[in-house]
Specification:
- The complex is a heterodimer of chains A (263) and B (371).
- Chain A is mainly alpha-helical.
- Chain A has two domains: 66 residues, no CATH class; 169 residues, no CATH class.
- In chain A, 56% of the residues lie in helices and 8% in strands.
- Chain A is built from ten helices and five strands.
- In chain A, β2 and β3 form a beta hairpin.
- Chain B is mainly alpha-helical.
- Chain B has three domains: 60 residues; 148 residues, Alpha Horseshoe (Serine Threonine Protein Phosphatase 5, Tetratricopeptide repeat); 93 residues, no CATH class.
- Chain B contains 16 helices and five strands.
- In chain B, α14 packs across α15.
- The relative contact order of chain B is 0.05.
Chain lengths: 263, 371
Amino acid sequence: MPEPTGRGSREFLPSANQALSEMEEATGKPVMIVDAPELNVLATIRRAGPEDSSHVLRIKDGEKRAADYLIVFQCRMALRDGLEPRAVLRDKPAMREQVISECEELHGQMPVAKARELGSFIYDGLILQLRSMGPGLLVDRWIRQHCPDLQEAQEQAIASEITNNLGALQPSIRASYPGTLYEASISMNAAYARFGADLLGKPYLAVPYLSQGYGDKASRLIALALEGGSPAKEPEDRQIIDSWAQELGISGWYDWSERDEQV
Amino acid sequence: MSEPQPISFSVPEAGFDLTLLPEAARERGSEAFREAVTIYYKDAYREAGGRVDVGFNDGQIEVNWEPQAGQIPARATITALLESGRYDEAIPLLLTRLQLEPEHVESLYNLGMVFSDRMQLPEARELLSRAVELDPGHANAQVALGIAALRDNDPDAAQGPLEKAVVLEPRNPFALRALGQLLMMKDNALAALPHLRAAATVAPDDPINLFTYAQGLLAIEGESHETEAGELFKRALRLAPVGELAEKIKNQQRRLAERVMRANAQGMPRLDAVMYLSSALEAYRELDPEGQKQLLAEAGAVGQKGLSINSPEQNHHLKHFRGGTTVSALQVVCILYVGIQLLLPGQDAGIDFAREYELAKVMSGRGGEEK
């Protein structure tokens, strides 16, 4: 079981403290920060439901300075759609089954159970990526503009994420993924790299994707996220996600439900 | 600033975007293709420094970039170079960026601005035209394109971008000022004034705009805006007390003063000026050549600070005038005028006292004698 670190076990930067306070004031419930080395992403937040006493923010490595950035990122993500229960992306069993079946075909030499597990894993990964990447651009832009104390941590986290994502360009990974799913995932990675490159002033971060012709698609995805709203209001998560799915050709791959359980 | 991390990735040769390569190098797998791909990646990482290795293996392009420790990110470098006017160093970085991303609007805009400042106007206009074509909502690029066209003596081409910029950002002081200047160049002061007035509201400390605005006010026929224009000249001079603009402002101040003076005299020669010019002629006559030069220099120095010749309250002490005398601003201008006629004939005195000077020469017994 992950160990709760709570608040006060270490000193946070002002922006992180403020984000936690805002989250707590807005919802009336505290945020419990949990070290979670088992996570396969950097951090997650679970907003408290009516029966929960606190929100739970899991961070892969809570002691690193990047934790402050991740706290702000997750708190702002959690509050993006206001205080109403967040719309949640649900898997679509038929699409999951289709991905699993394509994986079975691709990995004929693999035991069926393993191939099914792999198919399920990469389907979930795509849905998680779709859920967080587009809205995350708005949050990262906000952090860059409003949190000078997080500049270095944000820079490190984004550059590191972009660099890690490059692993998906390896021929072996490319060969393991069903084509449509791979293209959708790489296109989202390209959008994130291009956005991060511009945000951090490090154009070289986007080179791997630009050299493969993903530049235009990346720009379209970025525009859908950053410019999809009105001048007075940013687009809601659901609007961004649906428009991204349409651009990526995966519109029918998920369902929406209204209850927030896991981000 | 965090240290950049090394980057390694693979791209299938079949997946490389051929439009990034010269046409002669687009046959995948060929020697020319591989050479061009290698150059592409080396260029792409050049502005980030460090070392790039590009290899080809089994249909894959393997790229490995090792950053050099302690380097500043490229955009910060470019921005710093541009802000400090180090254009020679910024230009290669911007060109590299555009080679990597030919449609990067900010780089097109920045390089266009640099070329415009260097009066490389055809290049500037081409880059800025591409920038606004790609992003018509980039108000600053529209302004820069308009200004480049103005510098290139093409006011007709300047008008469209400047009007777009004002529509895009009605409170952009550069857009308002440039459009106002353009309309002034086209002798349409009436159309220019609203833009110049708006620019003066959003940027009240911009001496160039205040100066242009004042000129616009004075250019309107049949209306009397001398007092407002005079105030604007004074404000502009306080903001830019030295330099080329200051000289232009002072020159305009003198012309405005003369205009007011003429208006007050209803077109007749001013008798007070005739008297002062006559007195100045006598004073110069009493001095040896060195003393004359000293008096002219002293009057010129006082004049540099700006003179209100229509204000009898403004007095100045001239120690080389008749052994040290306190005189009015109009008198200083007359002493300056006479000095220039005697010692620097042909030079613009900044005010036209020709009729008064002819009368003064007759009065002081020097009619028809210039030297």
